[in-house]
Amino acid sequence: MGWHTVVEDLKKFWVFEHPVGSNQFKVLQECSLELQKGLSEVEHKENLMLDKSDKKQVEQQQREAVLRRIEEDNQDRQRAQARKRQAESAAPTSS
Prior knowledge:
about 100 residues
């Protein structure tokens, strides 16, 4: 088929048997280039997806922070109203 295996340093390698410049070698070069292009496209798409997921995560964290601030503000307002009511009920009424 044009390939054979070689073992060096306990590692198995595949070796292409056809000489440089042969038609089979040219086809292998073209295929290698196309595979590299495809791999770079896949990596680019993966990076875009990671960027989107990072953006979504940041947006979610920002939403959670805003909701926490709103909740804290509501609690502060309720405490202020409760203190105001206590102060009004504790104040002597003039008749």
